[in-house]
């Protein structure tokens, strides 16, 4: 049976129906000119290369060529940003993704990737600002809004983060991720009870939510309940094997407890999933160093630790954690202070002024400098040899 | 008719309960009137009687001909004027002046001529005959007399012509004799005359004029023979040729003479000779050569004569005339062979290298073909012309000529196509029009096309009517009308064309839909001032009635076709829409037409019966609005509602039910009550429908509106709940809260749906993390327990809500309400399993609020009655903590002892929680011993130092013992904590010993001895500390306990024995809350055009809302059991 409303509305004779439309505005993507086919071909080749474990360099090269051929091919810029981020070039990734985001303001993946890179660079405020603009124009983008909550929280804008988390929950009541984020917001405000209840609710809503388990672990840690925390992190890892944060936290706890072998297991597990995870590499190196330093047969582990850190630094020369830890390895274990010194210097150049390890690095640097052998004495200047025949010659023409 | 309508209405009104339906709206919506009446009414009104066909006057359109100007000079003998024209006024003045001057000059010439004649006559008379000047004088006199004679002849002729015909008598004639006599004397008497050839020429010329061709021929023969170098040779040949041609039709002879003339290209006769030679050649059958010469004449005249030497008007005129002649004959040559086409002619001209004349020639050809009624070839010529000169200012006229040709040939398909081309290209805005510099010409051409097309269409219509049986003619007529309307529908008289096309469609072609369209358009387009006069007034009404009749026939066919498809959904067809349109127009233009209400009603009813509800409602809506007092309005209103009901259009059911409440025929209380019921049900249905369609916001609003507006309705409370659920789906917190407040308000508290509404709101808000708001509704449920609110008391989630209220208030740090909620829970559910948890929550609330005494009292009251052993141990620990905070150290010790006692003696009965609490209690006891240990200062009186040290050592042992005892309770957390504390205690003791200042007044030697003694005491303590850490750490690692205590022990080992346990200085792996999420996937290919905005998030699946009686309860609250 047909609806009659349209007929009534169409008739000028009638008083009018009361049917109304519910359709809302639809976000339209910016109209772009057709892409340069050569650039597209490069892009596709780049993506294929990026899927090959050994194809990262080639992928980057191809994607750069694609972008050079067609500056408006935002998809290639996005891919380039993602590949660069995976390769650890976060600055390059941010640049590429920021350009892609400008070209295609409606792509949630671009916004997410850009924010993620900024988060990794600890540019939490910038990440939050970028996502804030995005969710304002795309209110239904819940993944972006959830990440926005995390960015706000990390940048210290906790109240704003709470508001945004609630926005997610209003649109998606019971969303475990949003509840967990909300829990962490309250935790960072010291409202542990509310945080606990929210984390519990998140787990009630989704018993397999890694983020909810992680939040539960963080809350347990905050009240000193390490066992509960550790258990929660284990559950988080079980719930999502790719949730590296829980494993990182477990590895950290094990490292601190001196269970280096077990810590190394966790970090290795992360690296199996994400081979280029910087934090896991740092952790594994520390665990190996701990193991190696404790045993007489541990030199191979120490060497492995060194290799890992050097690899990391080769890829990310400004990774302050790697600089500091390699410096410590050289100074404390390998007893090569001369090699450690430039690393601490670089750390002091790169690390933020409020980095908690600055004082320790300075101490190391000063100590190494103090214990270094004095420089070889500088040879006193020798008189320049006189040109032949130019010297006064007493016998020949001399005044006598 | 009127009486019948009234009776039918009465029948509708009496139908009453017989209209009951089986749907939800059965009680409210009427059924259809008896079908027999409906069918009868429908049958009558759908057969509108059309007006008679208008008879067209049969117009005979004249057959087209060429322009008739083909042989005329294009300049009409006038010089071509370039530049600015002389103004007309000045021109008039000049002409008058010139005429006066000419008259004066002529008069003067005549005077001079008479004087010259007199003098010459006198000279001849008085001069000897053999005088040398005599022949010349005679020649001059002969010429002058010829001029006088010619002037006299003209005067005589004018006078003769002025006389009445019957009085004119013989026409005057020229008198050649005086001149010829003089010339004859010269020829006879003066053979030695130096200009004898002149005399021969002059006399031969006059003989020619006199018609004495032989004499003339003899004179010219002599010139040619005796004076071959004479200046009159060419003239002689010309005269000879003309004479041969005109008198003897001697074409070869004439041709020969013309050829001779052509040997004198400098003469004025050249062009004519060329033309005449061509003529001769043509006559002699040499058409190719003839055509060439005609073309040469063209070239000659275009060039202004041989070598362009034609200088004066006369020459120009001659050349123009010659060209016209040449063209005429050239065309004649070209058309002589019927196989020749315009294309052939063009090919010929091109071959001659004269295609530059093609336009003129082809145009002349086309006109000639038309003059000869050779329309196919004429059309072809015009088409060629259009191709050769597409931007010519006359191109539009050529198109019209082509159309006329096709019209004459009755080739209607091509006629239509030609007009199509004309309208597209040659009217204002068309391709041709855009090339024209003269807009007036374009406008005029457009107007001529409009006129001719109209004329042709009307003529064809008349012809078709006259012929009666030719469907092709009617179809062609319609095609021409369509062409006309496609371009000229805005013309003031276009409505007539619309009407006529409607007539053809209706009466002859059976195109009823088209007929209706054109009739309607005719009625709409007729200018109002015209519509007031006859015959237009009648024509407009006829148009509409015929349109209705036409649609009636179409619809009848459609309905017949649907008959075999019962049950199928029928949509509003284009016919239905058209019918409503026309009827509406009819009603607008003739609002007082007495048949209108009934017409509306019965047409609507017909649609209704065929389930075309849109159209039915449209018609009845018009009826109700325009004729509210009509007896047809009430049944129309009933059927409108029923139509909407059948269409499930509840928005409009509500709208119309509200509207009908003030309508005529619905005033009775029963009708009003029925409409009210209909409205509320419609609103409910709207909510249901919108919810199903995904419009949750609209659904929530509809339900809320229903609840607010009809609070007494049995379904109102359920509407609140439904509004909440829909608002939940829509993420509309404001409506959710509003609906929940309404559901839990006084109005609905005695309704079974009320607690469901509260619980729905509480759980929804809780799932959104809005704990304080959720607690409000939990508290509502908890507070409405009791006899007054049986539905709340019996509500399955009453206890959950009460419990959740406590938990949520504690979580949100709302102490007072947490305590109040807790007390209420304990009062209402004293034996509930959750009671212990409530107590703990209340204690926490007290402690969070700094009200430790209240907490102590609470725990003491609780322990007095708690039976659960785990909870008792936990209670003691909590009590001890409160007591410690409250400064009641002794009581705290007792509480801890009680907890430890249970743990030790009834440990097997305890669960993990109980054991955890017992170990915690024992650990706290250890801490308390340590506190006593710390209270003893090493520094002080030296004499008592030994005692103090012994005391401290004893307490240290005691603490270590207690901590070791803690380990024995087997709780990992507290075991590692205890192990750490043992090491930490020894380390602290050693440090405090070492750091203690030496007693005052000691000599340096004594101080050294003192320090040495202390050191011997300290080292074993430190060793014990290291042992404790080492053992503790190893034990923790062995047990797999990795917590802060394990970490602290490892850190201490690094501090105390860095060689064996290298310290950890590395950075970069702090425990973190945020995840480093993997990067999103790569994009494989460009996403241009793909939607990038994310899809709306899925919402939690709500309970169905359709059943008004009892909506299923939402899921259990997260807070139940969500306590940390």
Characterise this structure.
- The complex is a heterodimer of chains A (400) and B (1124).
- Chain A is an all-alpha fold and 400 residues long.
- In chain A, 68% of the residues lie in helices and 0% in strands.
- The longest helix of chain A is centred in the last third of the chain and has 17 residues.
- With 1124 residues, chain B is mostly helical.
- Chain B is built from 48 helices and no strands.
- Chain B is elongated, with a radius of gyration of 63 Å.
- The chains are: A mainly alpha (400), B mainly alpha (1124).
- At the A-B interface, helix 1, helix 2, helix 4, helix 6 and helix 8 of A face helix 26, helix 28, helix 29, helix 30 and helix 35 of B.
Determine Rg of chain B (CA atoms, Å): 63 Å
What's the main sheet of chain B like?
none
Secondary structural class of chain A: mainly alpha
Tell the overall outline of chain A.
globular
Write the H/E string of chain A, N to C: HHHHHHHHHHHHHHHHHHHH
| Residue windows where pLDDT falls under 50 for at least 5 positions of chain A | 1-30, 379-400
Q: What is the typical, i.e. mean, pLDDT of chain A? A: 81
Largest sheet of chain A: none
**DSSP strand count of chain B:** 0
Q: Specify the structural class of chain B.
A: mainly alpha
**What proportion strand of chain B?**
under 5%
Q: How many beta-strand segments of chain A? A: 0
- Rg of chain A is 30 Å
Helix content of chain B: 55-70%
